[in-house]
Every structure is written in structure tokens, then in C-alpha cells.
């Protein structure tokens, strides 16, 4: 018997080996996982349009092509297409995330207001489906709305002092993403008017003219809907200008030796001298502390917690003026400046400090230059601040009543002696507490406007 293979046998073996190798090489090209599309489920588009960003990932054979097609009452149209380099045998560039940003403008796309659908498809270089590849499809619900919300003022002329506050009422024609009163580049948010149904669109906003606001600032109502359309209305306001005093403070060697070193250590300031450390604390650390305050009070409760006027620290004497421009000296050398937003109130040492009004504790702890500090949210953008406390007797998220004890006065932080630094903020802007201590001002400027809502 002849066991030697003839040429036909060897050919069959070679063909089998070739087919096996081809199958081994081609097998990954038959992967069946479609591309992944990362996209929002729905999107609102206003008159100005929007930029939609999508992500596409294919881990197997790489992306082959993408398409975005808008379907609406007027028909359909392709708004974006992209083809990727690759070949049937070698595939594409697998594993890489591809990001696409597309501008969608109703006017350019000739889309009428109403619902639409953006159909997003992606194919890969797989040999599945007779070489057509795996296909993914995502439908994004589109709401086209090019009409701005209407804003209607709810009262007459507003009188407001620089460094002061005011309350206004207004109504909006539809649900909004944000609304309120814009003063210059700052929007003071609006909240649902008390005792009204949300769908009624009745709103209340407390706003301020900041100490450092430009003269004759532009003040107007503003409402932005979910599609980004902005409606505005004039707010009739008269701003009374006022001058703020200047105070020259001469700091002693005792202050630099006693107060500055422990504070510098606690806030992480290192400097060659105590004077240099004070300069950093009074500028850089102060700025960081103010940023922290803004972040802490940025999400005010939408309901009004307070009642009546705010109360002054019991049996205290006012030792400073609101928004005084402080210039700090060592002998005849000016070393630093700062604006003092609030009042320094002095009583006896470690006197009990009560809450100025009902509110929720949003912060209770160390706050740099403010030392032991408590922040109370009174709702609708109203905040009160109590600084330099020796002891804090409340905790975050606790509700406190008007005049309820929250701590004791002290000299923690950047303080030369025992006192309470008290401040009020409206929508994140420091305002003169004298207005809020005045029961008649509350009645005429706040209560009267809220009671007029119907």
C-alpha cells in the first residue's frame, strides 16, 4: 500500500489550512455588537437654536458611517452625515470614542414649532448582514418652540437704594427654566407666589442694587423657557444713590502677634512676616471665603420662612457702618483694603446670639476670616450671616425660630475683639440690614406687595 500523498491530497490540506487561517482571521470581522450611541432622550430647541453633542463608540470593528435625520411635520431631511476611513478586510478604527457636535437651528432647517424626531444611526465595519455591518438607531424627541415666554409686571414704580433691596411680583405665561429680575449681569431668581397655584404663573422676586453696581443699572424682568427663548419686560424702578463711608483702621503689633499667626495656620497661609500674612488673608483668603458663601447659599428654599421684621443682636451696639471702605494701616503705611459688608455688633463677651428670623441652617462651622460662622436660609433668596462666634449651638439643616439661640459672640477668625459680624444677603448680594430690621419697611416694601397678589 502506498502511503505517500499525491498532489491532490496536499492541495486539499493546503486549502483546508488556508480556509482555517482565513476563518481565524475573519472571525472577529463577523462581530455582532452594534455601535453605542450616547444621546439625550429629548431636547428642546428655541429660536436661537442649540448645539447637540453626541458620542459614538464601536469596540469591535470600528465606525463606518453616521447619519442624523430630522423628521417633522414638514417632512424630513438629513442634517449631518460622516463616513470613516476603513476597508472591508481590515475594518476601521475600533475602540475610539467619536464626538459629534451639530448646530440645530429651526429657521435654517425650516422646522415649524411643535414636535419632531431626530433619528440618529450608526454602522460599523462588521461583515454581518452580508457585509452591511451592525446598525444602531436612536430617536431623540425634539420640541421646537421659538416663542419667548411673556412677562407681565405686577406692580407700580419700585423705589430702591444702592446697597438696598426690593420685592416685586410678576406673572409668566408658561413654565420657565429660570425667571426673575436681572440687574446688570446678575439674575435674582423668582419663586412661586405664596398661596397661588404653580400653574397660575404668579411669581415673587427679591432683588438688590449692589454697592458696586454701575450707576443707573438696567433693571428688567426676565424669563427663559426650556427651549432657551428669553422674554423680558421693563421694570419701573428708581434707584436712590448713596455714598458709603471710608474707615482708616490702624492695626497694632499686638493684633499681628495675637490674631494673625493662628488664623494663617488654620487657612494655610505662609508668609515671611505677619503683615504679609495679613495681606494674603485679607485679599486671597477673603475672596475664597466669599466664593464659598455663594456656593453654600445658591440653592435657596422656594418658600418664605421668615415672618415680621428681622431682629438685631439683643442688647448690642452698632460698631461699624454698612459697606464702609476699610483701609488698613501699620503706622502711616497702608497695607490692605476691603469693603465691610454688614455690621459689627458688640454686647458683653460671649453673649447669646439669636437668629434674626426663622430659617434653615445651611452652614455651621469654620469659615476662614469669618471664624465660627452660621448661615441661615430664610427662603426666596434671603440669607443671614453670623460670624466670629465662640460657640455654635446649631447644626446644618436644622430649622431655627426667630430669636432662637444659635451660638455665642466671640473673636474667632479675623477679629480683634469679641463681637458679632452680622450680614444679610439677597440673591447672593450683600444688602443693608437696617432695612430688614425696620418693621415699617417690611410692611410697605414686602408685605404690601405680597398681599396684592391675586
Keywords, separated by commas or semicolons:
seven-stranded antiparallel beta sheet, Immunoglobulin-like, eight-stranded antiparallel beta sheet, 7 helices, alpha+beta, 454 residues, 3 domains, Glucose Permease (Domain IIA)
Structure description:
The chain has 454 residues and is α+β, with helices and mostly antiparallel strands. It folds into 3 domains: 28-144, Immunoglobulin-like (Sandwich); 151-240, Immunoglobulin-like; 247-432, Glucose Permease (Domain IIA) (Distorted Sandwich). The chain contains 7 helices and 31 strands. It has helices at 7-26, 106-109, 253-258, 260-267, 274-297, 433-437, 439-451, and strands at residues 36-38, 42-45, 50-57, 63-72, 75-83, 98-104, 114-124, 135-144, 151-153, 158-161, 165-172, 178-183, 186-192, 202-208, 219-224, 230-234, 237-240, 246-250, 317-318, 324-330, 333-340, 343-346, 352-354, 359-366, 372-379, 382-389, 391-392, 399-400, 405-408, 420-426, 429-431. The strands form 7 sheets. Strands 19, 22, 24, 25, 26, 28, 30 and 31 form an 8-stranded antiparallel β-sheet that branches. The mean pLDDT is 92.
Per CATH, the class of the largest domain reads: Mainly Beta
Task: Give me the Rg, rounded.
Answer: 33 Å
% residues in beta strands: 35-45%
Helix content: 10-25%
Measured between the Cα atoms of the first and last residue, the distance is: 112 Å
Number of domains: 3
Low-pLDDT stretches: none
CATH topology of the largest domain: Glucose Permease (Domain IIA)
**What's the CATH H-level superfamily name of the largest domain?**
Glucose Permease (Domain IIA)
What structural category characterises the helix and strand content? alpha+beta
Tell me, rounded to a whole number, the average pLDDT: 92
How would a textbook summarize the main sheet?
8 strands, antiparallel
What overall geometry do the principal axes of the alpha carbons give?
elongated
By DSSP (H or I, 4+ residues per run), the number of helices equals 7
Name of the CATH architecture of the largest domain = Distorted Sandwich
| Total strand segments | 31
Amino acid at each position: 500500500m502506498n502511503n505517500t500523498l499525491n498532489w491532490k491530497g496536499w492541495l486539499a490540506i493546503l486549502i483546508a489550512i488556508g480556509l482555517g487561517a482565513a476563518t481565524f482571521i475573519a472571525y472577529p470581522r463577523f462581530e455582532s455588537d452594534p455601535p453605542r450611541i450616547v444621546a439625550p432622550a429629548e431636547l428642546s430647541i428655541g429660536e436661537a437654536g442649540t448645539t447637540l453633542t453626541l458620542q459614538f463608540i464601536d469596540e469591535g470593528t470600528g465606525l463606518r458611517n453616521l447619519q442624523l435625520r430630522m423628521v417633522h411635520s414638514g417632512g424630513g431631511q438629513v442634517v449631518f452625515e460622516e463616513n470613516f476611513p476603513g476597508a472591508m478586510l481590515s475594518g476601521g478604527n475600533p475602540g475610539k470614542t467619536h464626538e459629534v457636535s451639530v448646530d440645530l437651528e429651526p429657521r435654517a432647517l425650516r422646522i415649524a414649532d411643535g414636535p419632531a424626531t431626530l433619528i440618529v444611526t450608526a454602522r460599523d465595519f462588521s461583515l454581518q448582514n452580508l457585509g452591511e455591518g451592525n446598525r444602531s438607531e436612536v430617536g431623540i424627541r425634539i420640541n421646537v418652540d421659538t416663542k419667548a415666554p411673556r412677562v407681565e409686571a405686577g406692580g407700580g414704580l419700585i423705589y430702591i437704594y444702592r446697597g438696598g433691596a426690593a420685592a416685586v411680583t410678576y406673572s409668566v405665561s408658561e413654565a420657565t427654566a429660570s425667571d426673575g429680575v436681572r440687574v446688570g449681569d446678575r439674575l435674582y431668581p423668582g419663586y412661586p407666589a405664596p398661596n397661588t397655584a404653580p400653574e397660575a404663573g404668579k411669581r415673587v422676586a427679591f432683588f438688590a442694587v449692589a454697592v458696586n453696581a454701575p450707576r443707573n443699572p438696567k433693571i428688567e424682568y426676565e424669563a427663559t423657557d426650556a427651549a432657551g427663548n428669553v422674554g423680558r419686560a421693563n421694570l419701573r424702578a428708581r434707584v436712590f444713590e448713596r455714598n458709603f463711608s471710608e474707615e482708616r483702621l490702624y492695626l497694632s503689633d499686638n493684633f499681628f502677634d495675637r490674631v494673625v499667626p493662628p488664623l494663617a495656620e488654620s487657612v494655610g497661609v505662609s508668609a515671611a512676616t505677619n503683615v504679609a500674612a495679613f495681606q494674603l488673608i485679607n485679599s486671597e483668603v477673603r475672596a475664597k471665603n466669599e466664593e464659598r458663601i455663594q456656593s453654600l447659599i445658591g440653592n435657596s428654599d422656594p418658600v418664605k420662612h421668615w415672618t415680621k421684621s428681622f431682629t438685631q443682636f439683643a442688647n448690642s451696639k452698632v460698631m461699624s457702618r454698612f459697606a464702609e471702605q476699610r483701609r488698613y494701616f501699620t503706622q502711616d503705611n497702608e497695607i490692605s483694603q476691603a469693603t465691610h459688608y454688614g455690621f459689627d455688633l458688640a454686647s458683653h463677651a460671649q453673649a447669646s446670639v439669636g437668629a434674626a428670623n426663622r430659617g434653615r441652617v445651611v452652614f455651621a462651622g469654620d469659615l476662614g476670616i469669618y471664624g465660627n460662622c452660621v448661615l441661615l436660609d430664610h427662603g426666596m433668596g434671603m440669607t443671614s450671616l453670623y460670624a466670629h462666634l465662640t460657640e455654635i449651638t446649631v447644626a446644618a439643616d436644622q430649622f431655627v425660630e426667630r430669636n432662637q439661640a444659635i451660638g455665642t459672640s466671640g473673636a474667632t477668625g479675623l477679629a480683634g475683639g469679641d463681637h458679632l459680624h452680622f450680614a444679610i444677603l439677597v440673591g447672593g448680594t450683600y444688602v443693608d440690614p437696617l432695612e430688614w430690621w425696620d418693621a415699617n419697611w417690611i410692611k410697605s416694601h414686602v408685605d404690601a406687595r405680597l398681599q396684592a397678589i391675586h
